[in-house]
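Give me the fold.
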Amino acid sequence: MKVLMAQCASAVGKVDANLGKLEAAFSRTDADLTIFPEMFLTGYVPRDSLPSVAEPIDGPTVKKLASICKGAGRALMVGIPLRHPSIKGQITNSVVAIDKGGKVGRYDKAYLPNFGPFEESLYFTPGAAPLAMDIGGIKVGVVICYDLFFPELSKLLALQGADLIVCASASPTATVANFKRMAPARAIENATYVAYVNLVGNHLDLVFGGESRLVDPRGEIVAEAKPLVEDEITGEIDLSKLEFARRMRPTIRDTRSEVFQAIIDLGKFR
């Protein structure tokens, strides 16, 4: 499967302009899956205007994206704020995943940063349901930015069969170095591909760093984008390489559920 990572800048609060940029990038590629960064469709973060730009999963923007995918016979993933699936008035920081037939899945960011320049807990409700979706015969799991710091989430996706873990991100320059280290770590420990797709541009005091990359199951870089500028990179997901990595280091086979249960039990006493 051919994957394109669209490292783009997005205009805060300007959904139509960002959607136009997405359509242009999508039309330029023949990749089976095109991935855009965290909150790309609204910019990171439109703050007080979030209630007016957030849509339900069956809203007009998602319907248009589904139609585009179905018409082209290709898949995409993109960051977007969505209305909570069951709680009125709540908004999630989400990725919409759409396969080549127009089938839509959603992932709502589980871990919301609320430190330093980040204040996501003021605006978003955390999600709890993982997403591992079949796209062209490849099972693709999704995490969003800060989620990558929590290895149990990537492990859960790998145990659900994910061959590729996508991390849609809005990482500023000060934190990009951490993501560059963690992407190969998550890949090696789960013997999965990891696609880290980051924003560029700036909003207020945040300057997004780019340096998106595709990492193979042994932690080697398949493709790497430039820092700070818009860039589009492609790479192939080779299942034979994934199978070889899992034979050589069978971390998925050797994962012990009782260890995770111990972590859960320990957390009850915090």
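The chain has eight helices and 14 strands.
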